[in-house]
Design brief:
The complex is a heterodimer. Chain A is 64% helix and 13% strand. Chain A is an alpha+beta fold. Chain A folds into two domains: 161 residues, no CATH class; 178 residues, Heat Shock Protein 90. A five-stranded mixed sheet of chain A has the order 2-4-5-7-6. A two-stranded antiparallel sheet of chain A has the order 1-3. Chain B is α/β, with parallel strands linked by helices. The chains are: A alpha+beta, B alpha/beta.
Chain lengths: 353, 251
Amino acid sequence: MHPLLDDARRLAAYVAAALPLAAVVVLLLTRGPQALPMAAAAWIGGVLAAAAVVLLLPVWFVCRVQPFDATPASRLAATHGMGALVTGIAWSYVGTGAARLLDSGAGDPLPDLYRAHVPALVAGGALLYLVSAAFHYMLLAVEAAQRAEKGAVELAVLAREAELRALKAQVHPHFLFNSLNSISSLTASDPARAREMCVLLAEFFRRSLAFGDKGSVPLSEELEVARTYLAIEGHRFGPRLVVEEAIEPAGAACAVPPLLLQPLVENAIRHGIATCTEGGVLRLAARTEDGRLHMTVENPFDPDAPARPGVGLGLSNVRGRLRARYGDAARLEAHRTHDRFRVTLQIPVEAVG
Amino acid sequence: MSGETMDVLIVDDEAPARALLREMLTGVPDVRIVGECANGLEAVKSAAELKPHVVLLDIEMPKLDGFEVLELLDPATAVVFVTAYDSHALRAFEVHAVDYVLKPYRAERLQEALHRARGRLGQQRPEPAVLARAARPDGAYAHRVVVRDGGRVHLIPAERLDYAQAQDDYVELHSEGKTYLKTQTLGSLEAALDPAVFVRVHRSFLVRLDRIRSIELYAKNSRVAVLADGTQVPVSREGHARLQELLGEAG
């Protein structure tokens, strides 16, 4: 709750600050023509210091209710002016009370001597209030900064996690297992093709692993990975997989996050071509328009096919990556017709840096 | 039936995968490949015609997946799943597959699976629909019902299934004016479908809730549900209570 009551060390420091305050009050009361005797001044000074410790605690709540940045200056001035005045008067009254306790009876000059110091004490109390308010505003600002920093760190961690998850999801192990099974089959029936598939698999992994620590790659390189992947799938699916490309040179030169398209291409195979007995045409397209890079992956699918696990996972991963990286500047649209599925990505055109 | 020839049907949508199975089975004594299929529908049809002892079955395939194929096979047919997906293994054994071979595999592993299949020949799997329920991922309900009619397979989407009626040891499925028969109990069909959508209004009747036009009092303590197409379905007292509960929940 209260930052001073929350933490034993802070509270101890705050209470300790009352000692010099008491000393200052004693100094004030024992000076000038209306000086109080030392013993009386020490008593009143101690009581006033203790009273200040208690009186200034609620200032924090006032500061919290009226944040420095979000409250009009006139309101701040009114609130704290009033607060300072009330605190000053209340504080000096505590002193009056303490002086009265020492009053030995008629003729004792003590209350009158004290009364002479009241204006200075009211001013001092008001000043203490203002110092305390300033101190609490500072404390709140520090806390807000810490919170913001923690939030920023958390956001960065989340973005990084999304990125890692996306990268991990890129290469489905089943792709590897199915490819190895095809190679196993071809070793006897068609050794040359088996060898070709081994090379393609190696190329695919080498290229996508090399992407791992890059922030962005040219779309042309991204497409190379997709082509290698599709060449491997071509050996598995045979004539069922036909790939068509419409890539504008200007688009191919643009920078994209590595393996951005890969999950979409894998989806196009697993939830598309693989569900069609006759297969179909997988289309890849890229073009630039008005400073934006448009990329499209389109595939046929069988509307009657049983749903395969993981539908929508790749898509939401890509969406998450785009949001983490481009915020609102990127768009992902999925469009489904009766038997074709098309995903279009739009990102700002960036040169490879 | 050790020593007798075992007829094997190969089902995989990838040609190289089929070729590999064929190659590894060629020359194995007492094993005969009776056919190869590239999708689930073909598999059901071929299995009905060729009556293989063993089906080597991929899981992710066009048209029907491996689990749906298994549901439609003769319960005496031994099924060995051959797949790259290890995530389906638990479900595979729940539906009483003989074995679950992960791609890629050695010839010995395939032999072992066939050996296991030989040991299980002639044993019946439980009722297909019980299998269908086990084959579904937790918390998911079937969004279609598969029915085999000889070599033909009908896929009835849950949203087009009007109602089902229990007959002796099968159910009569009514969809868009057509009737299909499936060897299954009404209870297991009910368990497979979303209980918020299909209601057991009577011991022998399961009805799609949004097909009910009205509930009418037929005689004392006896009601009928009138469906959108005019069909009248008896509603038992328990059925009526269930209906009220569901409709009450709906608003």
